[in-house]
């Protein structure tokens, strides 16, 4: 499933969720997952809206106490990391808030950790951002696309007083992703910081080839000369030949890097083991030549966003580096899973790669083959050969390949018995 947002009238967190609800997002699922957050003092409301002959939904967070606390980025991050949300929802919400924190830090000339949120730290903004992450996950949206945004003028009232439109944080968020704008004749804010952060973090600003299956309209509160709504199109990707495209898995990761020129190979090996044990997704070393022709090593670590600071601290503690670099990035992934394959030597784990439900490749899993080789007293390469033959047999009609595998197993068993 892919989604296209027609932002002709701008975007806010409320409009985004209204469009998602109108397009089929379960109201019950949204309420249940938002209830996992440690925030209170609000109610969720949705209502049908009709403007200019277009019917849709308006979503809003009704606050029981309008005086909302200011929250620092560290407080919001800890809140989301501690909440019992599904991992993908937590990662997306953290990524959106991180986009906001980095933009606010740039505007105010401080470090992200020093940023304290006003409007976007309040309960309604937290609900909007986590709700957006929930909508993407529950509806199974693999990629979000967006149209150009309306560039308006005027002023907006904020905690810092009157500020020009687009608000400085909104402009900084969208500048970083080179979001396209089109002139719009009205005055006032049509693109909010929350809406901008959702787009900058999750969307690509282009029109996809899409086979539209559902349409949703999410309405804002302002009265404009046109229906003030965000239009959402849900469907499947189309190829140029008209066939349905492949759907890819996507997630967000943090790339942590550091140049190490004062760490021995033994300590690098120990550091890799420590990082992997602490939850790193991947750890690699690359040779570098630094200033004064000093040889060095580039350490690259892929981490889940919520673990990035923990792993960065580990690197600072366990190596001689004085600093690390962190980048947020999105990954495109084929579907991968582990399955069990029965062989004449016993069951073995294989890794299967799929794209759009179609098997592209399968390979033996190293640790499973190594365990089987030790258990049967066979060379590892012999076990690999047998497992690959069984894999080939399982991917085509049974027959000659399986017979050859049985013969190989018998030969290896005899060979092993002779050695005993």
Q: Which SSEs are present, and which pair or pack?
A:
Elements: E1 2-6, H1 13-22, H2 27-34, E2 42-51, E3 54-63, E4 71-72, H3 73-82, H4 87-108, E5 116-117, H5 123-138, E6 143-146, E7 149-153, E8 155-158, E9 161-164, H6 168-176, E10 181-187, H7 193-202, E11 203-204, E12 210-219, E13 229-237, E14 249-260, H8 265-277, E15 282-289, E16 295-303, H9 308-318, E17 325-333, E18 335-343, E19 346-355, E20 358-364, H10 366-376, H11 380-394, H12 400-419
Parallel strand pairs: 1-6, 6-11, 7-10
Antiparallel strand pairs: 1-13, 2-3, 4-5, 8-9, 12-13, 14-16, 14-17, 15-16, 18-19, 19-20
Instruction: Indicate the proportion of strand residues.
Output: 25-35%
- How many E strands? 20
| Strands side by side in the biggest sheet | 11-6-1-13-12
**What is the domain tally?**
3
Helix coverage percent of residues? 25-40%
How many individual helices? 12
Give the biggest beta sheet: 5 strands, mixed
Give a brief description.
With 420 residues, the chain is of the alpha+beta class.
Report on the architecture of this protein.
There is one protein chain. This protein is α+β, with helices and mostly antiparallel strands. The chain folds into three domains: 2-237, no CATH class; 249-333, Alpha-Beta Plaits; 335-419, Ubiquitin-like (UB roll) (Roll), CATH 3.10.20. Helices cover 37% and strands 33% of the residues. The chain is built from twelve helices and 20 strands. The protein has helices spanning 13-22, 27-34, 73-82, 87-108, 123-138, 168-176, 193-202, 265-277, 308-318, 366-376, 380-394, 400-419, and strands spanning 2-6, 42-51, 54-63, 71-72, 116-117, 143-146, 149-153, 155-158, 161-164, 181-187, 203-204, 210-219, 229-237, 249-260, 282-289, 295-303, 325-333, 335-343, 346-355, 358-364. The longest helix is centred in the N-terminal third of the chain and has 22 residues, at 87-108. Mean pLDDT is 86; it is low at 397-420.
């Amino acid at each position: 499933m892919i989604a296209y947002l027609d932002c002709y009238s701008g975007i806010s967190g409320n409009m985004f969720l209204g469009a998602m609800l109108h397009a089929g997002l379960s109201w019950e699922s949204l309420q249940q997952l938002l209830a996992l957050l440690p925030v209170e003092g609000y109610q969720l409301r949705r209502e049908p809206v009709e403007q200019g002959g277009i019917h849709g939904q308006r979503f809003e967070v009704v606050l029981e106490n309008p005086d909302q606390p200011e929250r620092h980025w560290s407080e919001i991050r800890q809140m989301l990391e501690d909440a019992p949300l599904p991992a993908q929802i937590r990662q997306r919400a953290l990524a959106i808030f991180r986009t906001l924190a980095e933009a606010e830090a740039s505007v105010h000339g401080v470090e992200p950790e020093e940023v304290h949120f006003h409007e976007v730290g309040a309960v309604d903004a937290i609900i909007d951002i986590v709700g957006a992450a929930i909508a993407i996950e529950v509806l199974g949206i693999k990629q979000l696309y967006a149209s150009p945004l309306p560039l308006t003028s005027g002023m907006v009232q904020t905690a810092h007083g009157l500020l020009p439109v687009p608000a400085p944080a909104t402009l900084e968020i969208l500048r970083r992703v080179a979001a396209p704008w089109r002139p719009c004749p009205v005055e006032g804010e049509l693109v909010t910081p929350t809406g901008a952060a959702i787009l900058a973090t999750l969307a690509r600003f282009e029109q996809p080839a899409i086979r539209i299956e559902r349409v949703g309209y999410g309405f804002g509160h302002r009265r404009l000369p046109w229906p003030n709504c965000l239009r959402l199109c849900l469907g499947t990707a189309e190829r140029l030949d008209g066939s349905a495209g492949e759907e890819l898995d996507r997630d967000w990761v943090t790339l942590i890097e550091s140049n190490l020129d004062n760490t021995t190979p033994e300590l690098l090996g120990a550091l890799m083991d420590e990082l992997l044990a602490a939850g790193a997704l991947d750890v690699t070393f690359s040779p570098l030549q630094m200033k004064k022709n000093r040889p060095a090593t580039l350490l690259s670590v892929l981490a889940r966003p919520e673990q990035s600071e923990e792993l960065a601290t580990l690197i600072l503690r366990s190596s001689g580096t004085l600093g690390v670099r962190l980048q947020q990035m999105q990954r495109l992934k084929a579907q991968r899973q582990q399955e069990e394959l029965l062989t004449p030597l016993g069951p073995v784990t294989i890794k299967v790669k799929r794209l759009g439900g179609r098997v592209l490749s399968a390979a033996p899993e190293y640790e499973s083959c190594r365990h089987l080789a030790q258990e049967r007293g066979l060379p590892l390469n012999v076990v690999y050969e047998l497992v690959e033959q069984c894999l080939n047999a399982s991917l085509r009609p049974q027959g000659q390949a399986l017979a050859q595998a049985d013969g190989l197993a018998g030969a290896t068993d005899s060979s092993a018995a002779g050695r005993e």
